[in-house]
Backbone:
């Protein structure tokens, strides 16, 4: 009895209509290709170093009233690509580790000694980390290659400096 | 014997259900299609590679941001357009006027590694005269870069 019914069904299938499925394989193929094209075209995560530059000053401003900041850090690069932090020599652009370590050490000491930014001394609501002076200026000769300068900026950023300023006038 | 037809009542279906997969792929496709026109590709520059610590900034590839590219000494591109040095300031100014938000007044500089720093400084100087005090030096980030710890 059962066997007879099965055979019946079987025969009906074969002789009557086709299987009502859409073949989606080509659709998926095309979709995948389009998807991959758009994914390749969309570039991922660009990054940049933020640097500050001095704004144009009023030429009539009296500069003699401005006091130099004792906490200023200047990284200067000499034409033969040696790095100096203020007055201390710290290797060349080929190896920026001494510079990065020295800067990190300076920031660490400042944190311990509470050498805060001007105007930040009484702001106990801000973390110590953000109150210390971490501004670093970069002074590089015009003849240097841009790649070397960026390497130095990378090291400075790596040590935690923020903001990094670029000296624009009066370059060797 | 009864199963030989395949897909009949009670039989096990031997086809993968692709509908959810197609759904997800369509959605992804639409997302990428929508996002792509808002991005600018700019021109190819030999950017500084393998930098440890640049900050990720998705605004660089936005169509509306001001990107100056210097692939070689003395060649300045604003977006995709080659610009003479003398006209650079005017054109940058025009683009900056479209930026309403004061916070977003930042000019990105994509310079090749071999370009002399003097050229870059000249561009920065022009930008500075327009009253911009923030620039972004575009660089490629190395995967897994970490900040330096002080050694005592």
Residues:
């Amino acid at each position: 009895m059962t066997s007879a019914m099965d055979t019946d069904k079987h025969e009906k299938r074969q002789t009557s209509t086709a299987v009502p499925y859409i073949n989606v394989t080509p659709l998926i193929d095309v979709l995948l290709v389009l998807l991959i094209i758009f994914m390749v075209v969309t570039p991922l995560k660009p990054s940049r170093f933020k640097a500050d530059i001095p704004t144009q000053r009023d030429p009539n401003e009296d500069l003699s009233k401005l006091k130099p900041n004792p906490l200023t850090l200047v990284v200067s690069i000499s034409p033969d690509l040696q790095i100096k932090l203020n007055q201390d020599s710290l290797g060349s652009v080929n190896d920026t580790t001494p510079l990065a370590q020295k800067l990190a050490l300076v920031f660490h000491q400042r944190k311990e000694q509470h050498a805060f930014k001007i105007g930040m001394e009484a702001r106990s609501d801000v973390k110590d980390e953000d109150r210390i002076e971490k501004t670093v200026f970069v002074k590089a000769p015009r003849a240097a290659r841009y790649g070397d300068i960026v390497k130095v900026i990378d090291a400075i950023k790596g040590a935690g400096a923020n903001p990094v300023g670029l000296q624009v006038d009066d370059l060797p | 014997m009864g199963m030989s037809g395949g897909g009949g009542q009670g039989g096990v279906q031997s086809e993968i259900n692709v509908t959810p997969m197609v759904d997800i792929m369509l959605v992804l496709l639409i997302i990428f299609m929508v996002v792509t026109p808002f991005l600018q590709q700019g021109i190819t520059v030999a950017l500084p590679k393998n930098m440890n610590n640049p900050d990720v900034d998705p605004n660089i590839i936005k169509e509306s941001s001001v990107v100056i590219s210097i692939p070689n000494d003395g060649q300045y591109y604003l977006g995709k357009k080659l610009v003479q040095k003398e006209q650079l300031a005017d054109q940058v100014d025009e683009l900056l006027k479209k930026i309403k938000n004061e916070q977003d007044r930042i000019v990105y500089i994509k310079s090749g590694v071999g370009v002399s720093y003097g050229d870059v400084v000249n561009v920065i100087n022009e930008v500075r005269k327009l009253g911009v005090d923030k620039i972004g030096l575009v660089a490629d980030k190395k995967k897994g870069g970490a900040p330096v710890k002080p050694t005592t």
Notes: Chain B is about 30% helix and 15% strand. Residues 19-35 of chain B form the longest helix (17 residues).
